[in-house]
Amino acid sequence: MNSSVDAPTRPDLAAAGTFQIGQVIAVLGVLIAIAFISFYPTLRAPLTPLDGPTVGNNFFLVGLEGLERAWRGIFPSPDLYPLSEYRPVTHTSLWIDFAISSRLLGDSTLSYHMTGVLLHAFNGGLLFMLLKKLSVPGALLASILFVAHPLQTQAVAWVFARGYPLAMLFSLLATFPFLRWAGAIPSADADRTGTEIAPIAKTGASQIFTLPEEPWKLIAISLVLFTAAMLAHPAAICVPFAWLVITWWKTTTLAPKVAIAAVAYLLPAVALVILSVTMSLDRADLNAGIDPGRYDLVEASNGGPPAEAVARLGVAGAALLKYTQLFFIPFDLMPDHPRFNVTGPIRIVGLLT
Question: 0.85 cut: is pTM over it?
Answer without folding.
Answer: no
